[in-house]
Task: inverse folding
């Protein structure tokens, strides 16, 4: 039997540019969509919150929350109108937010601004809580910051 001679290829030095590192994505490529992922996570959290808010408004309309004195029929027309508006628009926003669609963000932004305006300009409807306005403003600022950072990730 004859011995198998090693080929010259096995003894040649390896080219450092060829290998796993050359075909593996760089660390920057893996982190390319971090802000977009954070934005989608934020939108999903806002979707869950919008569902809760929408269901709460429907519970007010149907009488599942509050006593007989707080019944929907005994409230002012402005309160009834605002409650029905938010009962519908919050759930529509939740769907769009969960799907991370542009229209979902627009509808959600409409709910945020609407609630802030009602609290500030028409305090007789829901009580004019500055805490609610502050929370809505904080959520709006968080959305704008995340959207800005996500937009910067994507090339034009």
Result:
């Amino acid at each position: 039997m004859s011995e198998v001679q090693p080929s010259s290829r096995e003894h040649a030095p390896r080219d450092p540019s060829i290998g796993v590192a050359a075909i593996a994505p760089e660390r920057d490529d893996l982190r390319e969509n971090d802000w977009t992922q954070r934005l989608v996570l934020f939108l999903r959290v806002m979707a869950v919150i919008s569902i809760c808010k929408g269901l709460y408004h429907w519970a007010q309309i149907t009488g599942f929350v509050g006593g007989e004195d707080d019944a929907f029929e005994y409230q002012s027309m402005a309160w009834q109108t605002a409650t029905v508006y938010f009962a519908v628009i919050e759930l529509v926003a939740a769907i769009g937010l969960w799907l991370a669609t542009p229209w979902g963000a627009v509808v959600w932004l409409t709910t945020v601004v609407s609630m802030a305006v009602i609290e500030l300009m028409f305090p007789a409807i829901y009580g004019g809580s500055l805490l609610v306005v502050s929370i809505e403003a904080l959520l709006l600022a968080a959305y704008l910051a995340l959207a800005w950072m996500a937009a910067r990730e994507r090339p034009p």
Remarks:
- DSSP finds eight helices and no strands in the chain.
- Residues 35-153 form one domain.
